[in-house]
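Q: Please design a sequence for this.
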């Protein structure tokens, strides 16, 4: 990222937003900025459509928790959505732990036994990886992320909204490196370090976003 990215700074300062503003962002989840109500001010923060999606996802936390400061004390540096969804599956039902489930599934295949079908929550994540993010910040990915993040928040599973901002900016990259990182974090949660964005990847996502902005113009 470039020095002092205004949007990343805004995410850290989200706790200072009023309850009404947070509620407006919450309601706008998955919408285009131009089509949202009471959110037009966001254009002064960022004109990147993916950033508006990130802001509306970050606002899914209860206002009291965001304004109380827990938003970053508890939810920062937790990895990508892939890591968060793996944790959600584990806490929902131990037998749905992705690392254990797919290890056992491979054993069944090697023994010539019929493996269990993947749980619906695993299939939900697989579909998410194939979802498209439209240039304007909407599309299937936006729709699916809204529902998924609400489930994570309800389950009190932490996500790193700063990491999410970087990931959504790079989602449309041809090499699909964000999708690959999410998949590794979900299917191999013990290898969580691969889930953290590097400086080179941050620069790459910004280059991708700059190119999309030029094409949009």
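A: Design:
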């Amino acid at each position: 990222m470039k020095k002092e990215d205004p949007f990343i700074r805004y995410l850290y300062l989200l706790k200072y937003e009023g309850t009404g503003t947070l509620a407006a962002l919450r309601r706008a989840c998955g919408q285009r900025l131009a089509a949202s109500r009471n959110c037009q001010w966001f254009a002064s923060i960022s004109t990147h459509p993916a950033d508006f999606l990130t802001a509306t996802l970050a606002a899914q936390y209860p206002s009291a928790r965001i304004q109380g400061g827990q938003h970053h004390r508890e939810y920062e540096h937790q990895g990508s959505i892939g890591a968060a969804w793996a944790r959600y599956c584990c806490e929902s039902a131990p037998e749905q732990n992705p690392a254990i489930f797919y290890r056992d599934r491979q054993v069944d295949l090697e023994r010539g036994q019929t493996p269990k079908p993947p749980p619906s929550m695993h299939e939900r994540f697989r579909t998410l990886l194939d979802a498209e993010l439209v240039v304007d910040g909407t599309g299937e990915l936006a729709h699916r992320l809204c529902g998924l993040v609400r489930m994570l928040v309800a389950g009190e599973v932490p996500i790193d909204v700063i990491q999410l901002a970087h990931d959504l900016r790079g989602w449309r990259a041809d090499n699909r490196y964000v999708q690959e990182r999410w998949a590794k974090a979900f299917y191999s949660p013990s290898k969580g370090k691969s889930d953290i964005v590097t400086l080179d990847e941050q620069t790459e996502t910004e280059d991708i976003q700059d190119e999309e902005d030029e094409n949009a113009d």
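Q: Thanks. Anything notable?
A: The chain has one domain: 6-216. The chain is about 55% helix and 0% strand.
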